[in-house]
Amino acid sequence: MKVRVWNDNIHLFKQEIADKLYEVPAKQCIELEEDDANVLIKRYSPIILGGDDQPIPECYKMLRIDKDDLHRNRMHKQNKNKAGTYVCQACGYVAANKWELNGHSQDMHKDQWEDPEEAQESVNAEQPRKKRK
Hints:
The chain is α+β, with helices and mostly antiparallel strands. It has four helices and five strands, in the order E-E-E-E-H-E-H-H-H. The strands form two sheets. It has a three-stranded antiparallel β-sheet with strand order 4-1-5. Strands 2-3 form a two-stranded antiparallel ribbon.
């Protein structure tokens, strides 16, 4: 997924990585894939000294990835992983946990079971245990 990479410097930032030139305008952002953005942020950029042995401000690397984009990407990945975990094979219903999926199966697809007594026993065996007080 794409993220925005911001340049907080007042100068244009340029860096070449793997034969690709990245240019981030001053006080603006560019959109990159999250993996490419991480490589750009973490790759070392040398400090260039001027004639008086002082660093040139144009070479300062002041890049950051937008936190909202990172949060959105992580939530999307979590939801994608959760959604694929408990899916009814008969109708595609997505459940939050296995007990909800078992309840859905019992309510909606009881007529499709080959052996109802055996299915009921397996559903009862997987019910969550009550906590002891």
